[in-house]
Design brief:
CATH topology: Methanol Dehydrogenase, Chain A
Structural class: mainly beta
Largest sheet: 5 strands, mixed
Shape: globular
Number of helices: 0
Helix content: under 10%
Number of domains: 1
Strand order of the largest sheet: 1-28-29-30-31
């Protein structure tokens, strides 16, 4: 997923043990394998884990009244992660000055305990990052350095953020290019992909950096995913699986092109897939890789075998609402969920995004579920419905619900959007696509979740980034 900030900001962008599944909750199968170099599953990356499942073993808020609190950070906060110590860490971009800033948040309130600005750079500086196995935020700053940012107590007991280590990627990055997505592999190297289409590995234990340029004309507009079998990267033309040689040099295992359509769709930020590739599967959690293409008029969910790249299926989705998605699929076991962003009114688009095809569209919303058949012979569309999701949904395997935020029209029954739109936290039944609970959060621009991801933290707490800070949603 990529994010757009308001015009003033420019475009940028867990009791720790899982609870038992709720009575009657659907058994989805395993999450992707735990990465030993990343933080807790469900909260270590923007998309939950390094496989980008957008699922979590933690439950959301329990039954009963809900409350919400807005931590006003004067920043758009697309990345809110939670370490093994229970402290949330957010990577935000300040509205004024567009400076990427790391915030350590109070687990009890969501308010900022400490902050640390990092070097400003590319469009996606301040978006993609992850927590390592020592609860340090790992990101590449605007100067092209791989940072590990830790949080520590001072002598007075106050919290402080500091850059614990820094590795300049230097000449490994082509001139004028910048890192879009990062993820650790199972050898402790950090994989990265640049907007211009270079894939690389960086080992900050040895200082070794190795790169591989992908075919000319292919750019990377979303993050990347890692599993024991390799690293998945989706460009604006194709999906790749890569591995590394002994010295860390990336090599392509397979490449699968997809239908990128006649142009960028309204509600998307680049001409191509809006997906961060997702690893999933019923046995190991990593047998398959999935993305959504950009075909017109109807996009399709594409599922590949992770080991060979063989296509399992191509299923048209999001037919009930607008058919286009800037969001990564949610996938666990045999089930995949795709949310529509078609027509979403981003206040600002990335430089070079170009005119969409068509030039404009209403935001109707949509949500589809596709199941891979048990024998792997294909896939079936289980349901397709209209849900006006304004965030990347998060599936909890503990409570058996999909958690998201809805953007409703000010005038009920219409598809209009305005700066006065109300936003509501919502829970969706994955068996039917039906919304089963909502909680009004607020109205207007300051509550816009801008298709950003919410994280479920210990204790049934949802932390949701907005254009101006972070919402904390829990039981009253």
């Amino acid at each position: 997923m990529r994010l757009a900030l308001p015009a003033l900001a420019a475009a940028v962008l867990l009791a720790l043990a899982p609870a038992a599944p709720a009575a009657g909750a659907e058994g989805f199968g395993p999450l992707p394998p735990h990465n030993p170099y990343a933080g807790p599953d469900g909260t270590a990356t923007m998309h939950g884990d390094t496989g980008s499942s957008d699922a979590t073993p933690l439950p959301g808020p329990a039954a009963g009244p809900l409350t919400s609190h807005r931590a006003a950070l004067a920043s758009a906060c697309p990345t809110v992660l939670v370490g093994a110590d229970g402290y949330p860490v957010a990577l935000c971009t300040a509205i004024f000055g567009l400076t990427p800033t790391v915030h350590l948040l109070d687990p009890a309130t969501g308010d900022s305990l400490a902050s640390l600005p990092i070097t400003k750079g590319s469009l996606l500086g301040g978006v993609y990052a992850y927590l390592d196995d020592r609860d340090r935020l790992v990101a590449v700053d605007g100067g092209g350095s791989l940072l590990r940012v830790g949080h520590h107590r001072t002598a007075t007991g106050a919290w402080q953020l500091s850059v614990d280590s820094s590795l300049p990627l230097g000449s490994a990055l082509p001139s004028g290019d910048a890192v879009t997505g990062i993820s650790p592999d199972w050898q402790g190297r950090v994989w990265f992909a640049t907007g211009g289409g270079t894939v690389g590995t960086a080992d900050d234990r040895t200082g070794t950096v190795r790169t591989l340029p992908l075919p000319a004309g292919e750019t990377v507009a979303n993050s990347i995913s890692t599993a024991p079998g390799g690293t998945a990267v989706a460009t604006t033309h194709a999906t790749y699986l890569l591995t590394a040689t002994a010295d860390g040099t990336p090599q392509i295992v397979w490449r699968q092109p997809y239908d990128r359509g006649p142009g960028r769709k309204p509600g998307q930020l680049s001409w191509g897939t809006g997906s961060t590739p997702t690893f999933f599967g019923p046995r190991t959690g990593g047998e398959y890789v999935t993305v959504v293409d950009n075909a017109a008029p109807t996009v399709s969910l594409l599922v590949y075998r992770a080991d060979s790249g063989a296509q399992v299926c191509s299923v048209p989705v999001l037919k009930a609402g607008g058919s286009g998605s800037e969001n990564s699929p949610v996938a666990v076991g045999n089930a995949v969920f795709v949310a529509s962003t078609y027509g979403y009114p981003y206040p600002k688009l990335p430089e070079g995004a170009g005119t969409s095809v068509p030039a404009s569209a209403a935001f109707r919303g949509g949500l589809s579920r596709v199941d891979v058949r048990a024998d792997g012979s294909g896939c079936d569309l289980r349901w397709d419905t209209v849900v006006r999701s304004a965030a990347v949904p998060r599936l909890s395997t503990a409570d058996g619900l999909i958690h998201t935020v809805l953007r409703d029209p000010v005038i009920p029954g219409t598809t209009s959007t305005s700066e006065l739109d109300p936003y509501s936290y919502a829970e969706v039944d994955p068996a039917t696509g039906r919304v089963v609970r909502t909680k009004w959060l607020g109205s207007g621009f300051i509550f816009d979740t801008l298709q950003m991801v919410g994280s479920i933290a210990p204790g049934g707490v949802v932390l949701q980034g907005t254009t101006t800070g972070v919402l904390r949603i829990t039981n009253g």
